[in-house]
Design goal:
By secondary structure, the protein is mostly helical. The chain is built from 7 helices and 2 strands. A two-stranded antiparallel sheet has the order 1-2. Helix 2 crosses helix 7 and helix 6 (108-119) packs across helix 7 (124-132).
């Protein structure tokens, strides 16, 4: 029986997204963020990306109180694996990530060098960790 994370990856592989070359790096990010789908946030709320709640996520997720390593905050709770995938891309459509598409046109590494330091305050270290999972 496939794990929840395996089911997510299988579903993601079959979906048509604007930049299919980004699938490996986004899966690597989800591996790191969710402990390959084993984190409580992933197993209880189908949030494999550590996505904190933002008002732009209305209609894509619901807010849930969650105690993470950095304390209690509102995180996104997703209704399904598909909802998480769509919600992840919606999260990146928010203003802090404006311009990611231009970077994606130059490949997955350029895309992640752009979004990584915005996504995670550890910046380059985070980018290196995620990119190492794609090698």
């Amino acid at each position: 029986m496939p794990s929840l994370f395996d089911s997510l990856v299988t579903r993601y592989k079959s979906l048509d997204i604007a930049f299919p070359a980004l699938k490996p790096v986004t899966v690597a990010q989800w591996i790191l963020e969710s402990g390959r789908g084993s984190s409580r946030l992933a197993t209880e709320h189908l949030n494999f990306g550590g996505l904190k709640w933002r008002s732009e996520m209305i209609g894509f997720a619901t807010p849930v109180d969650f105690e993470a390593h950095d304390g209690l905050d509102f995180y996104c709770k997703f209704a399904s694996l598909d909802a998480f995938i769509v919600g992840y891309w919606r999260f990146l459509a928010r203003s802090p990530y404006e311009g990611w598409e231009e970077h994606a046109e130059h490949g997955a590494e350029a895309f992640f060098h752009f979004i990584g330091p915005i996504y995670n305050p550890s910046g380059d270290a985070y980018v290196r960790q995620v990119l190492a999972l794609t090698a």
